[in-house]
Amino acid sequence: MFHTILCPVDTAEPGLETKALSVARQLAAESGASITLLAVVPDMPVMAAEYLPADFHANQMSEAEQTLKDLAVKSDLPQDKVQTRVRLGRPYHEILEEAEASHADLIVMASHRPRLATYLLGSNAAHVVRHAQCSVMALRPEAA
Ligand code: ADP
């Protein structure tokens, strides 16, 4: 049914991804799909970048890579079918780019409940749902 499932993970919000990774694991098991875990390290505006150490982004990216690898183990994802990717940029933009580059046919991502601010500002999940060429599953948290 699916060949390549992309799971974008916000490593700054631990726990949000739990349900998405569990659903991705089940879908991958049913269809033999591979899973790509993606973290995007937000790029800093040029003015802020001046004040950061030269290796700031490189360090953030390798930390994110390690977090994804740990999540893959913790979430019991099939080790031979999972890969991790880290990109630098705006999250929704890089999610869409990675979906194209990896020929993803499904994106599974956790999404917050919509709030007024979300309607006004937009959100990563909304951008991805609107612009992705492939199917997108946006998983809301369980009702409290
Ligand atoms: P937000 O407004 O915080 O983007 P959404 O509910 O629209 O909230 O989307 C949250 C989802 O967006 C996360 O579960 C994750 O899939 C994706 N996402 C957000 N930030 C990142 C990031 N830095 N790297 C990868 N994915 C991200």
Automatic annotation (TrEMBL):
Pfam families with a match to the protein in the record: Usp
UspA domain mapped to chain residues: 1-140
Domain of life according to the entry: Bacteria
CDD domains noted in UniProt: USP-like (cd00293)
Stored Gene3D superfamilies: HUPs (3.40.50.620)
Family designation: Belongs to the universal stress protein A family.
PANTHER family in the record: STRESS RESPONSE PROTEIN NHAX (PTHR46268), UNIVERSAL STRESS PROTEIN UP12 (PTHR46268:SF6)
Entry protein name: Nucleotide-binding universal stress UspA family protein
